[in-house]
Predict the 3D structure of the following.
Amino acid sequence: MTAFTQSWTDTFSSVYANESLAKLSWFNASPGLELIKRVIDGTLTPGQRLIDLGSGPGVDAVFLSVQGLDVTGVDLSPDAVAQATRWAELAGADAEFIQGDVLDVPLPDSSADVVTDSFVFHNMRDDARSRYADEVHRLLKPGGLFLLNSFSDKMVAGTGPRRITSEEILTTFTADRFECVALYVYRNVPTRSKPDQLHWFGEFRAR
C-alpha cells in the first residue's frame, strides 16, 4: 500500500529539486504556530524524542531541534531530505533527516515521546489512513503525544490538498488507541496562493 496517489508522489518526487523553496505554494519559512505555542507552554521540552512525519524542507524539525528536542524528520522525497539537512546545518541544529515512507517508518517501536504530522494527513489516500494511524501509534511510547496539522473544511474551496473534517480525523485516530486532548481550527500564516489558511490542530495521547 502507498500513502499517496501516484500524481502526488510524482509531483513531490521532483518539486524540491526543481523549485526554490520560496516558489512552493505551501512554504512560508515559519515553524508551525501551534508548535511554537507548545514550546512556550512547556508541552514540548528539551530532551524529548520527536519524530516529524512528512518533514519536507525541515522548518518545524529544525526549530524544535534548536529548542533542545531530539528530532528526526522523515520524508519520502530525497530532495526534501537534502534541503532539510542543509537547513539544519545552516542553523547549527542537530536534527536528523531520513528518507522513508510514513506508512513504514524505519525507526523502532515506542521510540518517540512526540510524533508530529507536518500537513501529511490531508494528502493521504483514504485507504491508507488506518495504516497511518497504526504507524503513528507504533512509534509512540505509551502516553506519547501526537500533534496533527491539517487543512480543514473551514477553508474556501480551491486547489491543493483536500479539506478534512473533524469526523475524518476522529474516525482515523480512534478513541481506543488515542485520547483526543484537543482538536480545533486555527488561522495559520497566509501564503501567496492561499491567504485564508484555516487549519486543524489536533493533540492526541497514545493509550
Q: What stands out?
A: DSSP finds seven helices and seven strands in the chain. The first helix runs from residue 6 to 12. The first strand starts at residue 49 and ends at 53.
